[in-house]
């Protein structure tokens, strides 16, 4: 993208924007500049993953700012070490009031606390079917609770012993559809 500038001006502008992005972790600019900046800074961030003298010199030749290079190789490289790419995010903000230019916010993905995905724990799974044996055992437990509740309610009868409830459970395990006789 040419951005309506000559090449030297364009390179200087992208270098300044990249330094600002590294320093502030997010900047507001026009959508086209944000897209151009994304293409400019992603390879530099990839080079910062391996901290060698050669990669530092390559980053400095693009950014032309010692402080930005130092912060890139110290802070930013530590946070994005595991990420295989896509270090920046462009979010559209609408149009600017004065000239109706489409605005966007470009940010480093790992430095945003709102969209941080590290906090998300294991995804909860939903088990639809379940095994029949577990269902039969739970039915047997329900029947046992009903029997013991009924026995405890009536004072004239003796409480149900463990042996009789075990007989009911074994019957249910052998024939789970025949629960009408036990209730």
Secondary structure elements and pairings:
Layout: H1 7-24, E1 26-30, H2 31-47, H3 53-63, H4 66-79, E2 88-95, E3 102-108, H5 132-153, H6 162-174
Antiparallel strand pairs: 1-3, 2-3
Helix pairs in contact: 1-2, 1-4, 3-4, 5-6
3D architecture notes:
The protein is mostly helical. It folds into two domains: 7-111, Ribosomal protein L17 (50s Ribosomal Protein L17, Chain: A, Alpha-Beta Complex); 132-174. 52% of the residues lie in helices and 11% in strands. The protein has helices spanning 7-24, 31-47, 53-63, 66-79, 132-153, 162-174; strands at 26-30, 88-95, 102-108. The radius of gyration is 33 Å and the shape is elongated. The model has no long low-confidence stretch (mean pLDDT 82).
Quick gist of this model?
By secondary structure, this protein is mainly alpha-helical.
**Mind describing the biggest β-sheet?**
3 strands, antiparallel
Low-confidence stretches: none
Question: Strand tally, please?
Answer: 3
Give, in order, the helices and strands: HEHHHEEHH
Distance between the termini: 79 Å
Measured on Cα atoms, how large is the radius of gyration? Answer: 33 Å
Mean pLDDT: 82
Structural class: mainly alpha
* Percent in strands: 5-15%
CATH topology of the largest domain: 50s Ribosomal Protein L17, Chain: A
